[in-house]
């Protein structure tokens, strides 16, 4: 292992490895239940704001903008713990989620199972109850 | 919402949205405890092999190669459930992990907490016990 890899994997300096677009992948789980809520991205600024405020900020690739989770919907995330992985290109946050994490109104973005079905994989809804109506919340 | 987005978010066809490099982000959690084990990537072939065999296959960006989890280390992952998220650019697998998920020998890749410390974030080891010695397992 190179000295550099060793520092990244075994060191105590937080040196997030941003991708070519300046982002790290972030996994948010429910601190109470452990359920996976969402997978999103942070840039350096979102990461700093999250650490400084204790609330989750992300960077939206589709809107190309910094975004405080819940700023439109009120469905904020308070960060209970943040971790990083061996090569520091991913961040895990355990959060207290107000309401629903998903913009579709569901608690989690992962509301469909992938199931093999005659050679083709199909999706099956699971835990897919909506906690809010996205058409009302986002006023599309 | 466009008709296309509606199909992706509310439909039952599995249409993974691969990035420019042909990859989707994959989150693997421990089916027994719910703990986050690792964040990695699959290309179309890895995804198909995972679905067909019930064992996790990934695509390594650093080695630019398809890879059956555990093929060097014996630390395989049996997939108990697979889900996808609203926009189908991420996959969640709940797995039965043999031994350690992390190449450093730890159960999870997320063995360090990020903690604010005088304006700078520092890392603190947590759940960092090694289950195997990577120098022996990978014969570096």
Molecular structure report:
The structure is a homodimer of 140-residue chains. The first copy, chain A, is an alpha+beta fold. The first copy, chain A, has one domain: Phosphoribosyl-AMP cyclohydrolase (Ubiquitin-like (UB roll), Roll). Chain A has 3 helices and 8 strands. The first copy, chain A, has a 4-stranded mixed beta sheet with strand order 2-1-6-5. Chain A has a two-stranded antiparallel ribbon with strand order 3-4. Chain A is globular and about 50 Å long. Chain A starts with a helix and ends with a helix. At the A-B interface, strand 1, strand 2, strand 5, strand 6 and strand 7 of A face strand 1, strand 2, strand 5, strand 6 and strand 7 of B. Strand 5 of chain A pairs antiparallel with strand 7 of chain B.
Tell me the β content of chain A: 35-45%
> What overall geometry of chain A do the principal axes of the alpha carbons give?
globular
Question: Kindly, what is the distance between the CA atoms of the first and last residues of chain A, rounded to a whole number of angstroms?
Answer: 52 Å
CATH class category label of chain A? Alpha Beta
Give the name of the CATH architecture of chain A.
Answer: Roll
The strand count of chain A comes to 8
Overall number of structural domains of chain A: 1
Mean pLDDT score of chain A, rounded?
A: 94
Helical residues, percent of chain A? 10-25%
**Helix/strand-derived class of chain A?**
alpha+beta
Main sheet summary of chain A: 4 strands, mixed
**Major sheet strand order of chain A:** 2-1-6-5
Radius of gyration of chain A over all CA atoms, rounded: 17 Å
pLDDT < 50 stretches of chain A:
none
Number of helices of chain A: 3
CATH superfamily of chain A: Phosphoribosyl-AMP cyclohydrolase
Oligomer: homodimer
The largest chain-to-chain contact, stated as pair and per-chain residue counts, equals: A-B, 47 and 47 residues
């Amino acid at each position: 292992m190179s000295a550099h890899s060793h520092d990244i994997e075994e060191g105590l300096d937080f040196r997030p490895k941003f991708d070519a677009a300046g982002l790290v992948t972030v996994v948010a789980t429910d601190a109470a239940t452990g359920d996976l809520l969402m997978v999103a991205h942070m840039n350096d600024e979102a990461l700093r704001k999250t650490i400084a405020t204790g609330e989750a900020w992300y960077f939206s690739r589709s809107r190309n903008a910094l975004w405080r989770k819940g700023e439109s919907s009120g469905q904020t995330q308070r960060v209970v713990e943040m971790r990083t992985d061996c090569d520091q290109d991913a961040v895990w946050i355990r959060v207290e989620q107000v309401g629903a994490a998903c913009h579709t109104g569901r608690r989690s973005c992962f509301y469909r199972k992938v199931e093999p079905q005659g050679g083709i994989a199909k999706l099956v809804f699971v835990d897919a109850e909506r906690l809010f109506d996205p058409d009302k919340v986002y006023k599309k």
